[in-house]
Amino acid sequence: MIWNEKFECMDREDLKNIQAERLQEIVAYMEKNSSFYRKKFSQAGITSKDIKSIEDISKLPLTVKEDLRDNYPFGLFCLPLKDVAEIHVSSGTTGNPTVVGYAKEDIELWSEVMARTLCCAGAMPGDMLQNAYGYGLFTGGLGLHYGALKMGMTILPCSSGQTKRQLKLMQDFKPRVLSCTPSYSLYMVDEAREMGIDPRQSSWQIGVFGAEPWSDSMRSEIEGIWNMLATDIYGLSEIIGPGVAQECQYKCGLHIYSDVFYPEVLDRQTGEPVVDGQEGELVFTTLTKKAIPLLRYKTRDIVSIDHSPCKCGRTSPRISKVRGRTDDMIIIRGINVFPSQIEHILLKIEETEPHYQLVVDRKSGKLDDLEIRVEVAEKFFSDEIKKLRYIEEKIKKEIESILGVFVKVTLVEPRSIARSEGKAKRVIDKRQV
Amino acid sequence: MKITQISVFLENKKGRLYEVSELLGVNKINIMALTIAEERNFGVLRVIVDKPGKALEVLKQGGFIATLTDIVAVEVGDYPGGLATILKVFSEHDINVEYMYGFVEKFSEKALLVFRFDDTDKALDFLKNNSIKVVGTQDLENL
Predict the structure, then answer these.
(1) Which runs of E-coded beta strand occur in chain B?
(2) Nearest to B44 among A383, A412, A416 (CB)
(3) What is the CATH number for B124?
(4) Boundary-marking domain end, from B38, B68, B98
(5) Cα of B37 to nearest chain A Cα, Å
(6) Hey, which of A114, A168, A179, A343 would disulfide with A243, CB 3.0 to 4.6 Å?
(7) pLDDT of the residue at A422
(8) How many Cβ atoms are within 10 Å of A420's Cβ, its own excluded?
(9) Which domain does B24 fall in, by range?
(10) Min Cα separation A326/chain B (Å)
(11) Ranges A203-207, A280-284, A384-388: which has the least confidence
């Protein structure tokens, strides 16, 4: 089922006209309500009157993550705080977290794109959704929730964790749709078998999996084990949260709701748009958001784009799975981690040298592992194991409390982590994604 | 009388222990006692050698992280219950042992054990006051 045929299957030319109209409106709205963008427009010597077609978007300034952080907490909001209905926060690199706000209309938009998303994955009104994304400041849980509510699903707001209970509810209530990170779906396999559940007999027929990178081979594994359709969902809190793009049953790219989130894929060197099929950085403009609209926001995700119509009938362009990042961010169990965050923490711990390496691994059926290998400072080396263990524990606690993700800390010999002349190789990602 | 132990940080990787022993060997440093404490990802090698100063120097030059620790070598009766006898005395007088291990060689008919106390000076005073024989660096060199 297609939730919003009018927009999702719209004729390309009509769509372009709507996009142009909306772009003009949003730029005019920003001129009026955003001191941040007003400044950017005047620097670029551009006004809303210069926007006549959607192609004119290339005249507009780009926005980067630092802009959000530098204007922490509410500097990029276009509405007074009293008109903001909801705020979400993601962890920061070295200081300020990223804050996003939603007006009531934005929550309505979020519900709309998430309803499209769930339908795109194959869910139907009346189906039960077991939502195992975390509820809270993270956008995953509530995003799925709003969409399912709008669409008319029965929601089981499990949030993440408590695997045994998740599995019991699956058995007793028989939800048809599951939403969680792909690695969590595999993590649940062992627990299910322990409980005497045959995964192939599970009630789940459709999975909406995202918030971390995953491969087609992982998809085959999930589909084989659980006997379900595993689909990929894409989103980021700066744009709306989950609900920016979603795979349909044909699994040939993720449909973008380009009537509201206008995508560009730009060459990493030249900044010019790449042709279909070629990789570049994904950049989004929110065409209708009210609380925190963003122009040409650089996602740092590397994808390719395909504008050809899909077998499912949707005309919206499709992006490939995320093939990499323009920065060194890694995603562990749905949480974004920047090596610079770890470095910042280590610098404050005197027992270690700020020489470190992050090793990410995903063993089959297990959640992602983040190991932090760090050199022990010579003057703090002790013949007593308990003192060394104390250093490990101290680092582990500091990092876990700031990142909110479990880590493994390994002390290594001084000078054993390679010093490279340019950028240090900080991350070793062994995950097969 | 304290003697000097060298502790070496060992990452849990192949050949690392061999490299330490090789380094000491080519520098004509003799190992007289040793033990390894192991953790999940690393270990600490503790050794008593005939030339601790030189050993520390060559290990550091060899890229190892190493440190010197004062420990006490005590002769203990080499018969069943010999160790228990002395540990009972320590325990009764609140002398805490962090770890201990044995020498490879013997000086007399008694066994020679190495103790790392939480308070080395307090332990030494106690040993002296109770006339328990402590082996010093000089004794080791004469071995």
Answers:
(1) 3-11, 31-38, 42-49, 66-76, 97-102, 111-117, 134-135
(2) A383
(3) 3.30.70.260
(4) B68
(5) 7
(6) A114
(7) 45
(8) 9
(9) 3-68
(10) 33
(11) A384-388
Q: In this model, does residue A92 exceed pLDDT 70? A: no
B134 lies in the same domain as B78: yes
Q: What is the dihedral of CA B89, B94, B99, B101, to 10 degrees?
A: -20
Assess whether B55 and B85 both reside in one domain: no
A-chain CB neighbours of B7 within 8 Å are 381-383
Instruction: Dig out the tokens for B141 from the structure.
Output: 């060199």
The DSSP call for residue A55 is G
Average pLDDT over residues B28-33: 92
Contacts 24+ apart (CB under 8 A), A275-278: A276/A304, A276/A305, A276/A306, A276/A307, A276/A308, A277/A304, A277/A305, A277/A306, A278/A304
Length of chain B: 143
Structural domain count of chain B:
2
Of the candidates A384, A410, A415, the beta carbon closest to that of B41 is on: A410
What domains lie within chain A, and their CATH numbers?
1-327 (3.40.50.12780), 335-429 (3.30.300.30)
Of all residues in chain A, the one with the smallest CA distance to B37 is A385
Of A384, A389, A414, Cβ closest to residue B98: A384
CA distance B40 to chain A (A): 9
Residues B78 and B128 placed together within one structural domain of the fold: yes
Taking CB atoms and an 8 Å cut-off, how many pairs form between chains A and B? 46
- Among B46, B68, B90, identify where a domain stops: B68
